[in-house]
Design goal:
single chain, 76 residues, 4 helices, mainly alpha
């Protein structure tokens, strides 16, 4: 399975740049975005949906069992 780190090596950039480029982040130049998209197509890159889901869940405040914590100040 091809990862963004593989694409980063091929493009000689950091993996965070690849991540931004694949999401069409304006902080990456249009030329670099196109170059990274072309490399991703050439390498048959497919986003790992399980990894993406894990990353998104990290942004939600939760306890060690995965339950959402209530804001400790909500009762004040």
């Amino acid at each position: 399975m091809i990862t963004i780190k593989d694409i980063a090596r091929a493009a000689s950039v950091n993996h965070s740049t690849v991540s931004r480029a694949l999401r069409d982040d304006p902080r990456v130049s249009a030329a670099m975005r196109e170059k990274i998209h072309a490399i991703a197509r050439q390498m048959n890159y497919v986003p790992n949906l399980a990894a993406r889901k894990l990353v998104r869940q990290k942004t939600i405040s939760s306890d060690s069992f995965g339950r959402r914590r209530k804001d400790c100040f909500s009762t004040i």
